[in-house]
Design goal:
- Strands 4-1-3-2-5 form a 5-stranded mixed beta sheet, sandwiched between helices.
- The chain is about 35% helix and about 30% strand.
- It has a single domain (about 5-139), classed as 2-Layer Sandwich (Alpha-Beta Plaits), CATH 3.30.70.
- The chain has helices at about 20-35, 60-70, 105-110, 125-139; strands spanning about 5-10, 40-45, 50-55, 75-85, 95-100.
- It is α+β, with helices and mostly antiparallel strands and about 140 residues long.
- It is globular.
- The longest helix is centred in the N-terminal third of the chain and has 19 residues, at about 20-35.
- The chain binds flavin mononucleotide.
């Protein structure tokens, strides 16, 4: 059984007025389904986009990404990595979450994600470093 780490970025289709409610809904579903499938990871959100790291057994990741791909709440998905890895980076999280807001905008800014540069345009190495930094800040 191989452990896979998948990373993608996408453009958000959430409408500003409903964004908070929709984000909470996405997380609730993600955490429930991921817990059942032993999928872990990190979801990063900005007003314009998403970047997500998914970790788990190969079949569970393929199935989960298949559902995420066709979700109309985002589009223009870019699959950035799908690799066999030795261990999980976010083992404790059915889906950790960080949004660019007042408390995190400094960290996002350090990795080039500003109101002018979107998260879905960032390369893989930047997204992985940003996720690590945000996870550290969460403690
Ligand atoms: C940005 C984003 C991230 C998501 N992350 C996950 C996830 O980690 N796990 C998951 O099961 N569903 C996730 N979803 C929700 C799925 O797209 C889908 O709605 C959910 O799995 C239920 O699938 P179903 O409607 O086919 O039953 C995410 C959706 C979006 C827009």
């Amino acid at each position: 059984m191989s452990l896979v780490r998948l990373v993608y970025a996408s453009r958000s289709r959430l409408v500003e007025v409903d964004r908070r409610v929709e984000l909470a809904r996405i997380l609730e579903t993600a955490r429930r389904l991921n817990a059942e499938r032993h999928v872990t990871g990190f979801l990063m959100a900005t007003p314009g986009g998403f970047a997500q790291i998914l970790e788990g057994e190969a079949g569970a990741i393929a199935e989960t990404y298949g559902r995420i791909m066709v979700d109309p709440r985002h589009d223009e998905l870019r699959l950035l990595a799908q690799d066999v890895v030795e261990q999980r980076q976010f083992a404790g999280w059915a889906m950790a979450f960080a949004e660019r807001d007042e408390t995190t905008e400094f960290i996002f800014g350090l990795y080039g994600v500003s109101p002018d540069t979107e998260i879905f345009e960032q390369p893989l190495d930047v997204l992985l470093d940003l996720a690590g930094e945000l996870a550290n800040a969460k403690g």
